[in-house]
Amino acid sequence: MADQYTWGLILGAVLGLVAVYNLGLLALYNLVMRNKSEDNGADSLRKTPTPALNGECPFDADVIVVGAGVAGAALANTLAKDGRRVHVIERDLSEPDRIVGELLQPGGYLKLIELGLEDCVEQIDAQRVFGYALFKDGNRTQISYPLEKFHSDVAGRGFHNGRFVQRLREKAASLPNVRLEQGTVTSLLEEKGTIKGVQYRTKAGEELTAYAPLTIVCDGCFSNLRRSLCNPKVDVPSCFVGLVLENLATKFDVWLIYLVRRSLPFQMVKWQTI
């Protein structure tokens, strides 16, 4: 019985991560749209040449983005298409290889369309997803996404997250006003309570500084900067557990706990597979 509840907690965490994944895309889109609606002469984002820092060093970019995961790469792409000079600094530009965010819900795909990034789910062996299949005691049923009012291409997408991230990075790097660089940001440069840029170490080990009127930190769960930015302090921001099953020959039962807030009450369903 304890094992069944353990499996339920694991799968519940997976579904929770999917929801967070799509909420992250929604928050990213709202951030971009809000910045685009502000006065073009605002100090935070500039299309015109930026001033010198203390009269000594000109800004290297309009925006520095720390991290080139889903949020960082998509944000860089959108800001650059709006005319901003964007400097993206990512700790590791090789393809990520970990289990996280493998399912994009239809709402997330709609946000990709609005950001002009829908082609990033192409050529990565992404599978279209139209809902969920539930199995219990030899019976099965389906819960379909309510997609009747949308174009036929609108659906969920299941994919290898690392391939999706690489496509987002390639899309951003293809723009002439995006500089995508591998490096580790070691600290934020602060002057009178205002962040003026970052100090970072390149892949070759060289210590450099970069300046911009706005710095956005999107460096994920392994952030080097979270402790200096969060108040109260956060030691463990989240936890995720994944399983890779190989050569499985016998059946097993898993208790899947799920919550569909808008259409179904809280339920516990027995999921049987091979």
Shape: globular
Individual helix count: 5
The structure class reads alpha+beta
- Oligomerization: single chain
> Biggest sheet, strands in spatial order?
12-11-10-4-3-13
CATH evolutionary superfamily: FAD/NAD(P)-binding domain
Distance between the termini: 19 Å
* Largest beta-sheet details: 6 strands, mixed
Number of domains: 1
Strand content bin: 25-35%
CATH fold-level name: FAD/NAD(P)-binding domain
Key attributes of the depicted protein:
FAD/NAD(P)-binding domain, alpha+beta, three-stranded antiparallel beta sheet, six-stranded mixed beta sheet, single chain
Task: Explain what this protein looks like in three dimensions.
The protein is α+β, with helices and mostly antiparallel strands. It has one domain: FAD/NAD(P)-binding domain. 27% of the residues lie in helices and 29% in strands. The chain has 5 helices and 15 strands. The chain has a 6-stranded mixed beta sheet. Strand 10 and strand 11 form a beta hairpin. Helix 1 packs parallel to helix 2, helix 1 runs parallel beside helix 3 and helix 2 packs parallel to helix 4. The protein is globular and about 65 Å long.
Précis, in short:
With 274 residues, this protein is α+β, with helices and mostly antiparallel strands. Helices cover 27% and strands 29% of the residues.
